Amino acid sequence: MSDTKRLETDVVVVGAGLAGLTAARELVRGGHDAIVLEARERVGGRTLNEAVGPAFEQVVELGGEWLAPTQHRALALAAELGLETFPTYSTGANLLERDGSIHRYSGTIPSLGLLPLAEVGIAMARLNRLARGIDTAAPWTARIAPRADEQTVASWIRRNVRTRVAREAMRIAVEAVWAADPADVSLLHALFYIRSGGSFERLLDTEGGAQQDRIVGGSQLLALGLAQQLGERVRLGAVAERIEHSAQLLDVIAADGLRVRARRVIVALPPTLAGRLRYEPALPAVRDGLTQRMAMGAVVKCMAIYDEPFWRADGLSGHATSLAGPAAIFYDNSPPGGSPGVLLAFLEGRAARATLRLSAAAREALVLDGIARLFGPRARTPQRYVEQAWSDEPFSGGGYAGYFPPGAWTDHGPALRAAIGPLHWAGTETATVWNGYMDGAIQSGQRAAREVADALG
Ligand SMILES: Cc1cc2nc3c(=O)[nH]c(=O)nc-3n(C[C@H](O)[C@H](O)[C@H](O)COP(=O)(O)OP(=O)(O)OC[C@H]3O[C@@H](n4cnc5c(N)ncnc54)[C@H](O)[C@@H]3O)c2cc1C
């Protein structure tokens, strides 16, 4: 029997990820009442800590993790919550696996050979230049929008990059940023995203870029800290299913029968999942079309855990790129102090989709084989292996974030953030800075809370 419990509040927030929690906290701070409905039995959404070490006294992250120096909102929240950051380990040589052999290199772009390296540099500079013409609040208004939105990143690469190795490197860079195949992503979306983060290099870099810093104790502490401040306003295990709305009033109905009446709702879900809620009356076609078009990236975050980071003694940073795959990008993901030693491998885009069809054991064997080819036989036998397949998570639908295929931004873009009566939209996919990242999620929550506060007066 379903419980027909009824609650009333000023604002319902759907989703207790960083966006939803930020929005709720801003509203409560502004004197409004809010209730957050969260489907899972935990907060944090695409951020998730995992305990590691002999006494499980250390933490690694299975989802969002790193912070860039220009992610001011996420850094400010960490500071406010009294959290410390530490730099991603990057001392020593990086590794490149290419054509059956392993090469050492330094910096972000692997040692691909003179011509391919120059080609990659020029391609990234071109993309950065094109991205400068994009207003991240309205990418569809850019002069190049019609042309950029009718092609994929793959077709742009084919036309602008000649050598096989450089094309491969560009594919891996795109997959590392969007967890999607270049053939799936609109060029306009890629330019928008590059602009929202600053530059392509900034998205890829460790020092000075999106992989620079980590949070002591794990990034999920950001969401846990916000949830603690909200207390009982956050209701776990509440799967929102339906929103009945009129101009001034709405009801959000959860799977267990809980019905929350409010004046406004902030749907703080990836648009793909927002589109799976039932709206009564139905939403305008342009909004429905948008949620039909935004796809989630596909990523499996895999970690091999050892008693120590043995690769450091060999002068290796733990950062590696493999053109052989299926895991293509690797990092030293050890907690501060280096105990235990943790090597992180990403399966992204097509590699994620292909390996998700395998058994977990077969996927683990493939990942460990890749790690061992790079870091030697000792890497083949970790003490423990953990992974998180985000595409298998019904309340995420994939990761790192949503992206648009060709045609979506120009036809449906204005519906991404525009409120519809009392319905407002948050989530990192709606951010204009650091879209797709934790910082973007926070920005979106702040923006949605402002919108709602203005509407409530
Ligand atoms: C593997 C991985 C690595 C990443 N690495 C980084 C990184 O290093 N740095 C970085 O900044 N970002 C990273 N990201 C991205 C970052 O995690 C996200 O941008 C951010 O956490 C998104 O927050 P959000 O609040 O917008 O969405 P979410 O975190 O997805 O929050 C949505 C919430 O809604 C809930 N929900 C879903 N459906 C319903 C429903 N029907 N009813 C109620 N609740 C529902 C979900 O359970 C979830 O809690 C990574 C993501 C992944 C997956």
List keywords for this structure.
alpha/beta, FAD/NAD(P)-binding domain, Polyamine Oxidase, Chain A, domain 2, Guanine Nucleotide Dissociation Inhibitor, domain 1, seven-stranded mixed beta sheet, 33% helix, binds flavin-adenine dinucleotide
What does this structure look like?
- The chain folds into 3 domains: 6-45 and 219-283 and 420-456, FAD/NAD(P)-binding domain, CATH 3.50.50.60; 49-70 and 85-91 and 210-216 and 298-392, Polyamine Oxidase, Chain A, domain 2, CATH 3.90.660.10; 112-202, Orthogonal Bundle (Guanine Nucleotide Dissociation Inhibitor, domain 1), CATH 1.10.405.10.
- It is 33% helix and 22% strand.
- The protein is built from 15 helices and 23 strands.
- It has helices at 18-29, 72-80, 114-131, 145-148, 153-160, 164-178, 187-197, 200-204, 220-230, 271-274, 285-293, 350-356, 360-375, 408-412, 438-456; strands spanning 6-8, 11-14, 34-37, 49-52, 58-61, 85-87, 93-98, 101-105, 213-215, 234-235, 240-245, 250-254, 259-262, 264-267, 278-280, 295-296, 299-306, 316-322, 329-332, 341-348, 384-389, 402-403, 423-425.
- Strands 8-7-18-19-20-17-21 form a 7-stranded mixed sheet. The chain has a 5-stranded mixed sheet with strand order 1-13-12-11-15, with no helix packed on it. The chain has a 5-stranded parallel sheet with strand order 10-3-2-14-23, with helices on one face.
- A hairpin with an 8-residue loop joins strand 19 and strand 20 (341-348).
- It is globular and about 65 Å long.
- It starts with 5 loop residues before the first strand and ends with a helix.
- The relative contact order is 0.20.
- The model has no long low-confidence stretch (mean pLDDT 96).
- It binds flavin-adenine dinucleotide.
